Amino acid sequence: MEYIILLIVGFIAGTIGSLVGLGGGIVIVPLLTGLGALLHLPNVSPQLAVGTSIVTVVFTGLSSTLSYMKHKRVDYKSGLLFFLGSGPGSMVGSWANQFFNQDSFSLYFGIFMIAVSVLLMLKEKLKPVPFSKKRAITRSFITEEGKTVQYGFHPATAVILSFLIGCISGLFGVGGGSLLVPAMLLLFAFPPHIAVATSMLVVFLSSVTGSITHILLGNVIWLYALLLVPGAWAGGRFGAYINMKLSGKTIINILRAVLIMIGARMIYQSLF
């Protein structure tokens, strides 16, 4: 029975992660840390939960990225530049994860999720940093309505920011998209669909480097990972499909709701 549940968890995580650009770790990590008591299995430590999650996120990221590529939503050049920072950052975060215990991990994970959701709540009031052609890298995107949207960023800013996001990715096993998507939307004025699709490319690449570190540290439950991966792969493709059917505002609202629910649950788990 527990194996079927893991397959379902993988599918749900892959769908949500792909839909809003997170990678799925925000679903897998809380469920793995609470899975032992629920299914009468041995307790899973934060280190094992994060390591197993980030291995699964590799496949969620790859699956959804391939789907987004078909619809030409991925900004490859920007994604690779962000990876220059997020790749090393995810390795540093994966190493630092070993210093967490169960309660502190749940508390900080929950606070992190709530903080991101608050940031997105303020998005309607906060305006993206005005686009300037002085930025070293500029991009343009034509919406379905035929409107041309311009966005851009400075390479140094992108690499430093993505390094910090990569650290959080490796630390919590969330894929990094939970911070990268808001940063793309608010700081660099990315269109929401492009931000999510490009984030999944970065999530895929950085989760590969983070996985290597966790594997070397022995932080992966391979049986769980093998059961989560098929569901995550299917969910990644399904989430990308749904993303194509929704407006940018709807995607942001879904992201916000998911973060609040998971964050509140983790904080509650750490305190009671």
From TrEMBL:
Name of the featured protein: Probable membrane transporter protein
Pfam families, per database record: TauE
Gene source species: Ectobacillus funiculus
Subcellular localization: Cell membrane; Membrane
Signal peptide start and end residues: none
Chief location bin: membrane
Family annotation (InterPro entries): TM_pro_TauE-like, TSUP/Inactive_protease-like
Protein family membership: Belongs to the 4-toluene sulfonate uptake permease (TSUP) (TC 2.A.102) family.
Lipid bilayer topology: Multi-pass membrane protein
Transmembrane segments: 5-28, 48-68, 80-99, 105-122, 156-174, 180-204, 216-234, 246-268
Keywords: Cell membrane, Membrane, Transmembrane, Transmembrane helix
